[in-house]
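lol ok so funny story. i was supposed to be doing the assay writeup but got distracted and ended up predicting the structure for this chain instead. priorities right. anyway since i did it might as well share w the group, maybe its usefull for someone
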Amino acid sequence: MSSLLTESDLIHEKEVVWLENPSGLDYVRQALDKTKRRNTKPPYARDGRMVGYALLDEDASPDPDSGLYKRRVFFLLPHDRDSLPDGLYREGAPGEAVDPRTIAPRKPGAKTPRSQSGSVAIATSAP
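and the output, tada:
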């Protein structure tokens, strides 16, 4: 799922748990994953690493067909800017990338100049 999440996708989020300090990251990728539980660390099966996830409140109900909860997960892939600052995303960012400073429970993350252009690009463009 892309970064184009809406608040209605996140109405049962209670808390965002960061596994890494997000202040040093220009962006994180976000996705809605289906998990068995609403309030534990979800499994992670992508390349790269999970840097955070959402916990759901007691009112969250699993999907009636699958029995799974939809939860937001934040992650980075091996070729993202934090690991390869001169790589593919030296400038620009993947479609699902948002600035981690804009993430809060029940609030979708936002794209910012920092997430889209990088802190180096912003620093060099300042007057």
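Residues 23 and 101 are 7 Å apart (CA to CA). The helical segments are 113-117, 119-125.
back to the writeup now i swear
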